[in-house]
Specification:
four-stranded antiparallel sheet, seven-stranded parallel sheet, alpha/beta, Immunoglobulin-like, 2 domains, 30% helix, TIM Barrel
């Protein structure tokens, strides 16, 4: 921003202070100690809230990262920071080669046109992926809001660019066309270049004008207007949680908000909160620990290996294959996590074709193998002790083995599974009865796969096992 722009924005935000305080109060929780209810505005109390069951059962979500950065669609959704703050030569060269001198990042907003955005088609596509929840970027670190926020004048999707309420349009589409998909919103607490935020940091957090007049009022506005059931916070991890008033907001969210019974939140609410406080933990981007965790967690990951936002320069090898995606799914849910699959829409409102293909491939696999995923729970063993690339889940008295590679000679040795006299083994997507299996003397089971041509499933194959016990247990 120019100095004049900074001063103007600072003046606008200060003028909004009274309105923000009034709006937050009207929202039912702006400074009321978290509102009356069972949860107090401290982590010990907030952490005692049970996880709403829908989230653990859902297992799969789709993440839509979309904003002004979708216009240059180059390098990363962090385009503005890399260009302006970091002076990255790659981004400077891109601007010099393609735009007139002194072209500013803010000017990209008028090109964020979204003219091909069809919310109903997005809802259909996410539903077809098999996802049970969706998370849309409401505001990224650039500060631009995808809804007509009263706290972001002239830097929102109604005032500049699309001239429409992107959050509201998509929320309506999902609730109308795909009501089984829970609607959620991502919201960045901080903004790279907001002068109020920079002033608060310069003052060593002895002031919190940005929190009181901008970012927290936005949260109340989002919850009251759109009632998201996932609040995916980001960008707060380098600043103290008390600066953000995080626990006060979360107490209101859990006690008094319109979504108090069903909402879930992640763990990015201030320094020290990540991987310690939240309905589910994200710990880091693309978090995939490979072992069972003692708290619900989520693997938020990208189909484009290098970026969350759309990149025009991405090549085919930059994208995960469907086998890569299903491998990540198997590893994640076997260890108790949910998988949040990121796609980056284009500036004109399209889901790139290769990303659509991955989502629909995922859905076709889940149509056949969903019993091993939805409402599943981790088994005693997460992955097999003898054969690499076999991951386990369970539902009730059934155990599922997700086999990532078709076995040589159609025989797979499961070192973690012991059969009993009650055992039966079938394959999801194979409708011709039980499979042949052989107990092994050294503990384990050989399972004979059917002819691949007779199996409907592709890419990853799931054994459905009844009456088995984990290796190391002796009860038959």
């Amino acid at each position: 921003m120019t100095c004049v722009s900074c001063l103007l924005l600072l003046l606008l935000q200060l003028l909004l202070t009274a309105a923000a305080a009034a709006g937050a109060g009207a929202g039912g929780g702006g400074g009321g100690g978290g509102s009356a209810g069972p949860y107090e505005p401290n982590w010990s109390s907030l952490d005692s809230r049970p996880l709403p069951a829908w989230y653990d059962d859902a297992k799969v979500g789709v993440f839509l990262v979309w904003g002004v950065y979708s216009v240059p669609s180059y390098g990363s959704e962090w385009f503005w920071k890399y260009l302006q703050a970091d002076k990255n030569p790659k981004y400077i060269d891109f601007m010099e080669r393609n735009f007139r001198p002194n072209f500013t990042y803010q000017e990209f907003a008028s090109h964020f046109t979204t003219e091909l955005f069809d919310p109903a088609s997005w809802a259909e596509m996410v539903s077809a992926s098999g996802a049970r929840y969706v998370v849309l970027t409401s505001k990224h670190h650039e500060g631009y809001t995808n809804w007509p926020s009263a706290y972001s004048p002239n830097w929102n999707s109604m005032d500049v660019g699309p001239k429409r309420d992107l959050v509201g349009d998509l929320a309506k589409a999902f609730r109308s066309k795909a009501p089984h998909v829970h609607f959620g919103l991502y919201h960045s607490m901080f903004e790279w270049f907001n002068p109020l935020y920079l002033q608060d940091r310069h003052n060593n957090y002895t002031t919190n004008l940005f929190v009181e007049t901008k970012t927290v009022p936005e949260l109340y506005e989002l919850i009251n207007q759109y009632q998201p059931e996932v609040v995916w916070s980001d960008g707060a991890s380098v600043d103290p949680d008390w600066y953000w008033n995080s626990t006060v907001f979360l107490a209101w969210l859990f006690n008094s908000s319109p979504v108090k019974e069903t909402v879930v939140v992640n763990d990015r609410w201030g320094e020290g909160a990540m991987c310690h406080h939240g309905s589910f933990y994200t710990c880091q981007d693309r978090y995939n620990p490979g072992s069972l965790q003692n708290h619900k967690w989520e693997n938020a990951m990208t189909l484009d290996k290098a970026s969350w936002g759309y990149r025009r320069e991405a090549t085919l090898t930059d994208y995960l294959t469907i086998h890569d995606l299903l491998t990540t799914l198997a590893q994640t849910i076997s260890c108790g996590g949910n998988l949040l699959v990121n796609v980056g829409p284009t500036h004109d409102g399209r889901i790139p074709t290769i990303m659509e293909e991955r989502l629909r491939q995922l859905g076709s696999w889940l149509d056949i193998n969903g019993d091993s995923v939805y409402s599943s729970r981790p088994w005693t063993h997460q992955n097999d002790s003898l054969t690499p690339g076999v991951w386990y889940t369970s539902r009730g008295d059934r155990v599922y083995a997700m086999v990532l590679k078709w076995p040589k000679d159609d025989l797979v040795k499961l070192g973690s599974v012991v059969t009993t006299k009650h055992t039966s083994i079938t394959m999801l997507g194979y409708g011709h009865g039980n499979l042949t299996f052989t107990p092994l003397e050294d503990t384990g089971t050989h399972v004979t796969f059917p002819a691949m041509s007779k199996v409907a499933s592709q890419w990853v194959w799931v054994l459905d096992m009844f009456g088995v016990i984990p290796a190391g247990h002796t009860t038959h």
